[in-house]
Amino acid sequence: MLCSHNGRTDMARLTLLFIAILMVTQVTSVHLSFAHFLYELEGMQWALRQHWFTETVMHTGVRHLNSVLVASLLLLFGRDCIRYGWTPRTQNRGLLILSVLTSFGLIAYLKTVTQLDCPWDLVEFGGTRPYYGLFQLKPSFIEAGKCFPAGHASIGFAWIALYFYWRERKPKRAMIALVTSLTVGFGLGFIQQLRGAHFFIDDITSAFIALWVATIFFNIVNRKPSEAKTYA
């Protein structure tokens, strides 16, 4: 469990692994090489950028679906607060909401701070801007990008919080939620890569942020085991 001592050790190891992956991509530019592979595969253009499936269904449609899910979760939380008051049930659901929304918000904020470009913005991929890495200072006269970390992939990754929400009471459901959120996140991220909207490191970064956010929120409150199993 990520809330245990061993869990903290696991998170420390994951953090070191993430930092290593980030450094390797910046030093070797392997993320650029993979983007070049996809770009060449599509005929030296981002042929899927405005495709009805990748743009209308998997981008716009999925965003709307996620908005419905978040709104539904907020309504359930409000209903529980009115019906049960502040109980372990509402508390846990509140942590779920905070984790999901914080993941979305933090990733969106970092996109404005890092100012990195999408592949489709870069000269080597048919765009107009030169490439600048994460640790390179971007001149102020060059328009700021908003493509790191990956926002769309966070629609899947933010729901990693469901793993923590269910892990004590329904461990099997928790594992399904974890696998599903990672699969959806990386799936949506890859579709965005096919559109030229992101590099793969953008998706890995969003996954790590969402995992850390959920870990922090669900480690704030220590519930008694007997309380943790009394609600669905």
TrEMBL record:
All copies of domain Phosphatidic acid phosphatase type 2/haloperoxidase, residue ranges:
96-224
Q: Where are the transmembrane segments?
A: 12-39, 64-82, 94-110, 148-166, 173-192, 204-221
Q: Fetch the InterPro entries from UniProt.
A: PAP2/HPO, PAP2/HPO_sf
Q: Reply yes or no: does the keyword Signal apply.
A: no
Keyword Membrane attributed: yes
Key words of the record: Membrane, Transmembrane, Transmembrane helix
One Pfam entry for this protein is PAP2
Lineage: superkingdom = Bacteria
The UniProt entry, under Gene3D superfamilies, shows: Phosphatidic acid phosphatase type 2/haloperoxidase
Record's protein name: PAP2 family protein
